[in-house]
Amino acid sequence: MVTMRDIAREAGVSQATVSYALHNDPSISQPTRDKVMRAAQRLNYSINVSARTLRSGKTNAIGLVLQDIHNPYSTQLADAISSYANSRGYQTIIQQTLYESTNEIAILQNIVSSVCDGVIFSPSKLTVKEIQTRLNGKPAVMLSPIDATHDYDTMLVACEQGIFTATSYLLSRGCKRLLFYCADYADFDDIKGATDSKWQRAAGFQRALLRNGITPEPWQFVPDQPWTRRTARQAIIDTVRSGLEFDGVVCINDESALGVIRGLADCGLRIPDDVMVTGFDGVEEGEFCVPELTTVAMDFEDYARQAVDALIARINGDDSPARDLTAISRLVVRESTR
Fold first, then answer.
1. pLDDT of 216-245, one tens digit each?
2. What's CA 147's distance to the chain center, in Å?
3. Considering only CA atoms, which of 104, 87, 107, 90 is closest in space to residue 34?
4. 303 Cβ partners below 8 Å, 6+ apart?
5. How far is the C-alpha of 267 from the C-alpha of 300, rounded, in Å?
6. I need a labelling partner for 265 at 20 to 30 A (CA). Which of 59, 133, 167, 241 fits?
7. Domain ranges, residue 126
8. For the whole prediction, is pTM greater than 0.85?
9. For residue range 42-68, what is the model confidence (pLDDT) as tens digits?
10. Residue 81 belongs to a domain
11. How many independent structural domains does the chain possess?
């Protein structure tokens, strides 16, 4: 059996350095850690996870619980988080809840609590307090929770500001009759400052209209429905067939924007000549569709780095006050707008 002493001899370092490197201790430089890992690989060394867990109380595994990994946004986010976590010496166990509270509860109780040192969690049904009771003190980072929290670090996306920027851009390009896909109409005063990402985005749309002297009206809001390309395609076809005139669509996410683009093409409308379209997320598919999608693109690597670093800090005992973290995002102008 290969031991850490064998790896130390192979790498030309001390046995203590090998131990620190294998446990991803921050005191070990990346070049030294790489040298130790290469030596371990050459010797076919494998870590006994059960023994290590008994000694350290850690598995060096984190949970990533998302709502729907079929969505390209979730897939790209999972890839970024898993890759960055791996660079920090952690494996990632990825689960999806499919927007069901029973799934959220089962994953927290049966997988996260027994296997993972901590979890990055995107809830859709459970409140923060309900999550807290099921984690039993296990560290967590919340991804856009449905209610505000001062108990966990929270990873946010600048939803309202992003949609405000996209809407303002379309108005600056000459759009006069904009639609928002998708949310039911609500008075701006009732949704500004909302914690729910849907209402944050709807508020950003309305704030841009108001800033430009336009009063938001109910006809501008495609009613709330799933944020999928299939649903969006049919919804925009129905909207065109209803006779409603519009010259731009601000979409709540990229996946629905891809469906809107296809639905407009089905109706014989030209993008961006007849209708301009923007999305929100920055998924790779938007760069390769025809026309390429203008979007508010989130920096997935920045998101992953902030979320994983925050979680690992908590796993290692950081007890500083919980923080709100916001990923970098920017407007990327492509072919779906002029």
1. 999 999 999 999 999 999 999 999 999 999
2. 17
3. 87
4. 77, 80, 81, 155, 157, 327
5. 34
6. 167
7. 60-157+300-327
8. no
9. 888 765 544 454 445 578 999 999 999
10. yes
11. 3
